[in-house]
Specification:
The chain has 307 residues and is an alpha/beta fold. The chain has two domains: 216 residues, Rossmann fold, CATH 3.40.50.300; 68 residues, Alpha-Beta Plaits (2-Layer Sandwich), CATH 3.30.70. It is 35% helix and 27% strand. It contains eleven helices and 14 strands. The strands form three sheets. Strands 6-7-8-3-9-10 form a six-stranded mixed beta sheet, sandwiched between helices. Strands 2-1-4-5 form a four-stranded antiparallel beta sheet, with helices on one face. It has a four-stranded antiparallel beta sheet with strand order 12-13-11-14, with helices on one face. Strand 12 and strand 13 form a beta hairpin. Helix 3 crosses helix 4, helix 3 runs parallel beside helix 5 and helix 4 packs across helix 5. The two termini are 31 Å apart. The model has no long low-confidence stretch (mean pLDDT 89).
């Protein structure tokens, strides 16, 4: 478990984190989300021991991280920075990291890591000849070569094509299923949502929300749900009128398709009222879909009006 307890970090007069507290549960993948300058990278660097908190404590499995070399060995870090040793081969670079991490069978560990990220066929090529996606996978290989229990990944999908992203996402899921704890910082929200629904949203150095996307969305009471409804036999006007009469919705938008509409509701009562009204009115609801119960919408609601 990773714990931030009343953590603040400042650089001179600049406050990067302000009294931040949150927890990353063991064996789960958690997304750390926020706009540029929100404090994401600072948070990751505090976890991996590159920065010391100005105030508060960052713990891993109940132990303070800063200055604890034994804890560092349990952590794998994929930095956003893309600076690598271009004169080395991929194999040489990852094995060098393995040796620095104290891996006894560094050759075997390097081969395994390169295989896991799909770089075996190019591991003897100099890094200077790697594409951006290959360099990113190489960074992932050095992150996992010493078999850490905690993976701290800063923008791990940057530069990857769709196929590479899917392979990397599946790898992260496999590692999580094997008991690894993974914290991902990313701005590609659609990709993060493919990996996990558990997020920590940070903005201007403060925690905006934590939990699952659905849990967070339910807490945003000031923004109504937008729900897509498709009706059979073009009875959407009848259904909309009955829902408005029952005060279950605040607004409705009829779409070009004669059977569909989008309604707005800020009350859970809507989801209890809709089945009753549809039966009473003999309206066959063919499709019902919440349009903004997703990571992008939740992120926009939490952050969008704070920029």
């Amino acid at each position: 478990m990773i714990e931030f307890i009343d953590v603040s970090k400042w650089y001179g007069d600049i406050m990067a984190l302000n009294n931040v507290s949150f927890t990353v549960e063991d064996g789960k993948i958690t997304g750390l989300l926020g706009p540029n300058g929100a404090g994401k990278s600072t948070s990751l660097k505090l976890i991996v021991g590159l920065l010391k908190p100005s105030k508060g404590i960052v713990k891993l499995n109940g132990k303070r991280i800063w200055g604890n070399k034994k804890i560092y060995r349990q952590i794998g870090f994929l930095p956003e920075n893309n600076t690598l040793y271009d004169e080395l081969t991929g194999y040489e670079f990852v094995r060098y990291i393995a040796r620095m991490r104290g891996v006894v069978s560094s050759h075997k560990a390097t081969l395994k890591a390169m295989e896991m990220v799909g770089l075996t066929n190019v591991m003897n090529r100099k890094i200077g000849g790697y594409s951006l996606g290959m360099r990113q996978r190489l960074k992932f290989a050095q992150t996992i070569v010493h078999k850490p229990d905690f993976l701290i990944l800063d923008e791990p999908l940057n530069g990857m094509d769709p196929i590479q992203r899917n392979v990397t996402i599946n790898l992260m899921k496999e590692m999580s299923n094997a008991g690894k704890t993974i914290l991902i910082s990313s701005h590609i929200l659609a990709e993060v949502q493919k990996i996990t629904s558990d997020v920590v949203v940070i903005n201007k150095g403060k925690i905006a929300a934590t939990g699952s996307v659905k849990e967070i969305r339910r807490l945003i009471r000031n923004v109504p749900y937008h729900v897509y409804i498709s009706c059979k036999d073009d009875k959407r006007e009848l259904l909309a009128a009955r829902l408005i009469e029952a005060k279950a919705i605040q607004g409705v938008e009829f779409l070009k398709e004669p059977s569909s509409m989008i309604v707005q509701s800020s009350s859970d009562e809507f989801f209890r009222t809709l089945p009753r009204i549809s039966v009473e009115s003999r309206v066959n609801v063919q499709e019902l879909k919440i349009l903004d119960e997703n990571m992008q919408s939740v992120f926009d609601y939490l952050i969008g009006d704070r920029q």
